[in-house]
Amino acid sequence: MNQSKIQTGKTNIIGVTGGVGAGKSTVLKYIGDNYNCKIVFSDDVANEIKMKGYPAYDELVRVLGKEILGEDGEIDRQKMAAAIFGDETKLTKVNKILHPAVNTFICNIIDEERLRNRYDFIFVEAALLIENGYKDIVDELWYVYADEDTRRKRLKDSRGYSDEKIDGILKKQLNDETYRSNSDFIIDNSKDMDSTGKQLNEKLKDWRK
After folding, report:
1. Same-domain check for residues 28 and 54
2. Alpha carbon separation from 101 to 97, 132, 191 (Å, rounded)
3. Of 99, 106, 127, 166, which is most buried with the most CB atoms under 10 A?
4. What's the average model confidence in pLDDT over 6-12?
5. How much is the pTM?
6. 9: helix, coil or strand?
7. Is there a domain that residue 4 lies in?
8. Residue 205 counted as domain residue
9. Are both 159 and 180 inside the same structural domain?
10. Is 206 inside any structural domain?
11. What's the domain range around 126?
12. What is the domain-level CATH number for residue 75?
């Protein structure tokens, strides 16, 4: 594991990734409650850039048609999901629109907050940080790990996913070895929040509120 790159007196940029059901949001809520930081969720950014006034809005409507719009003229997430369901060509086109736009938006946030220097940390959460080259953007990349049985149980309990759906999702994600080899810090979130909190506090003890 690499030596820590976190420094005092500057805004540190931390990328947080991990497989579905690993509990990234839970980990980040704990960090947000206990440390001076800003948390950027890539899904929230993706929803924002699909709104009117952003270039991604116009491009998505051009690719998928006005059928994806709701009565208010904004992109309806359910209609958009239905438009690309089972169509790999459309999905590829949509990803080519959204991924670069999300990356640009997040990089702009990072640049702005580094200039302001209001926070000790900016945490960026996304499932595709490694695939999208964020190792070159962040100071450290953190991997939230949970064993597969725990992840499956969480997905069934919280989202009602079937085993078949979970199998399909897991096949599309990076394996544990790839996550580990690309990460500077690994958080084992297989147990309770007390266990996870101890790991985080040991890592970030000098910045505790």
Report:
1. no
2. 6, 12, 35
3. 106
4. 87
5. 0.89
6. coil
7. no
8. no
9. yes
10. no
11. 12-36+120-193
12. 3.40.50.300
In a domain? residue 176: yes
For residue 2, what pLDDT is reported?
57
According to DSSP, the residues that pair with 16 across neighbouring strands are 125, 142
User: Both tokens of residue 87?
Assistant: 């169509």
| Tokens read off for 7 | 């420094």
Task: Report which of residues 55 and 48 the model is more confident about.
Answer: 48
CB 183 within 8 Å of CB 143 = yes
